[in-house]
Amino acid sequence: MLRAYVIVFLLFLYAPILLLPVFAFNSGTVIAFPLDGFTLHWFAELAVTKALHEAVVNSLIIAAVTAVISTALGVAAARAGVRYRFPGKAAALGLIMVPLVLPEIIVAVSLLVVVVQIMGWDLSMGTIIAAHVLICTPFATAILNASFQNLDPSLEEAAVDLGESRSSTFRLITLPLIMPGIIAALLISFTISLDEFIIAFFLSGSEPTLPVYIWSMLRFPRLIPVVMALGTILVVLSVLLLTLAEISRRRGLRRAGVKDKGGFL
Amino acid sequence: MIDQIETGARVNQEAKRGWVLVSVPLFYTILLMAAPLTAIFVFSFWSQDFLTLDTTMTLKNYREAFSEPLYAELLSRSIGIAGAVTLVTVVLAFPVAYFVSFHVAPERKSLWLFLITIPFWTSYLLRIFLWKVILGFNGVLNTSLQGIGFIEEPLTFILYNANAVVITLAHAFAPFAILPIFVALEKIDRSLLEAARDLGENAVMTFVRVTLPLAMPGVVAATLIVFIPTVGDYVTPRLVGGPNGLMIANMIQTQFLRLNNAPMGAALAVIAMTTVTVMALLLLAATRKWMRGGGR
């Protein structure tokens, strides 16, 4: 009984993304059943839409920069949290994790007020990156926490005893051991930034990101099949990225010799 | 004696290194989150007339927010919808978390969690849009139900209203609810369950009196992690909510980007955030007896 329920639940979870390719390859222009016939036309249209390509490039740049910065911040937070004891630690780490539960619209409007109304700056890709780093850092920290916790401190101590400096120990011993966690954090942050809509919607100036561009397409019924084709590609890509992240996370666990307890979070 | 001094010095140095490390991400969070939140709070006491910003402190926005029935209705609707979403999501998620924790072989658990989280990471906008396709008048659900002769007329109560918003958000936040409950279930010492059975409790009572109370920290975490962001959701009400399913975030967006009345939008954001924080704290206070010793 329980197993049957779980299978139905998984179907419910996957229903929308399983429907994407169905309509992406359907030649009818209306997104409804019954289906018409098979076509690759919508994918071909993607290849010649220039505005889309610009949005993709913007999104890739934003996601890549976001991933690097938030992973670096995550390394610092997780390392401090796992390795050191200091007064105010719980409060400091707690504050860093808050963006995880803060509604995105609040992040978006508060940054909009600061950037536009108070500072009088123009919105740009930089403002989106700054906000994306804020929301991705907690995820990166959570993943890297696990990596640092699995790290055997006696390995670092041995390196120091054998004459390595603190920085060379970190570079030669610590970094390689947590590398899988770093890769997982990079990939997750990249995926979150690539998919984020609300903040980008409020903070993008003249350079729309991919989700903002998709949002503008959704208003035109004529463009919906093209959006379905684009969505299919995006789903395949993010599943690929997530699988890489998961493989990397598991490799990290094996390297640390710890039993897998599952999950990113 | 010397040993003690040396240990003391090492602890001090440890603390310093810890602070130096944590200060970078902490400074970032303060600069990009705490400072803007303070700014929006101050901003909500200003006023704006078309393009001129008046920085005299006034309660005008709050007076308007509390006297205009539309705002109160949007806020109470947002909380109502978020409450319904949280209830549906947590109730639907619990059996799934229970299944993975108790009925899946340990070496396959992470695969299951991976399967559950994948849809969550993929194209948020399009997932919501596809619910419109599924729930619509000529949608997937109606045509299939008509196809098998289950209904004659298409169901209309499932799109462009609050129901549609609840279904769509429950779908979007499912993994957020499953993961914390799963973690709490994993921490339960299985010998406690055996003990309960040995002492004569049946399976149902063991679940009610042992498993459920021990899983409460996970349920509370799931409740908060679903409730807080859903109150502020913007896209779902906009795409599937229709005129009667709009929520407070849609009004905040309208004030900021359409009406050019950012201070009013700021006031609404502050009110929404305060309400959510108070509700979250009340929930934590009410469930304290289950949370004690729940951490580990």
From TrEMBL, chain A:
The keyword Cell membrane applies. It holds the Pfam family BPD_transp_1. GO terms for biological process: transmembrane transport. GO terms for cellular component: plasma membrane. Gene3D superfamilies: MetI-like. It comes from the Bacteria. The keyword Transcription does not apply. The chain crosses the membrane at residues 56-78, 90-119, 125-144, 175-203, 223-245. Residues 56-245 form the ABC transmembrane type-1 domain. It is a multi-pass membrane protein. PROSITE patterns: ABC_TM1 (PS50928). Keywords: Cell membrane, Membrane, Transmembrane, Transmembrane helix, Transport. It is found in: Cell membrane. PANTHER family: PUTRESCINE TRANSPORT SYSTEM PERMEASE PROTEIN POTI. Belongs to the binding-protein-dependent transport system permease family. CysTW subfamily. This is Inner membrane ABC transporter permease protein YdcV. The gene is ydcV.
TrEMBL record, chain B:
The keyword Membrane applies. One of its GO terms (biological process) is transmembrane transport. Residues 75-285 form the ABC transmembrane type-1 domain. It is a multi-pass membrane protein. Keywords: Cell membrane, Membrane, Transmembrane, Transmembrane helix, Transport. CDD domains: TM_PBP2 (cd06261). The chain crosses the membrane at residues 20-46, 79-100, 112-137, 157-185, 206-228, 266-286. It comes from the Bacteria. SUPFAM superfamilies: MetI-like. It is found in: Cell membrane. Belongs to the binding-protein-dependent transport system permease family. CysTW subfamily. This is Spermidine/putrescine transport system permease protein PotB. It comes from Thalassobacter stenotrophicus. The gene is potB.
